[in-house]
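Module 6 notes. Inverse folding takes a fixed backbone as the condition and produces residue identities as the prediction. Think of it as a translation problem where the source language is geometry and the target language is the twenty amino acids. Below is one complete input and output pair. Work through it position by position during the lab.
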């Protein structure tokens, strides 16, 4: 029983999965922020082009 507990405490696969999850969450958050920031700029650019056309 004690051997299994020591083996479980040494196992780092769960920690690695959590780290990858945090990295994915950070990247997703960054993408969302970029979309919101650039989305309005792109929309304004298209509106300016559309308004300039006769």
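Target side of the pair, the amino acids:
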């Amino acid at each position: 029983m004690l051997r299994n507990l020591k083996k479980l405490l040494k196992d780092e696969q769960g920690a690695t999965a959590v780290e990858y999850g945090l990295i994915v969450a950070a990247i997703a958050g960054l993408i969302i922020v970029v979309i919101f920031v650039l989305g309005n700029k792109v929309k304004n650019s298209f509106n300016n082009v559309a308004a300039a056309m006769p």
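Reference fact for the lab report: The chain has a mean pLDDT of 86.
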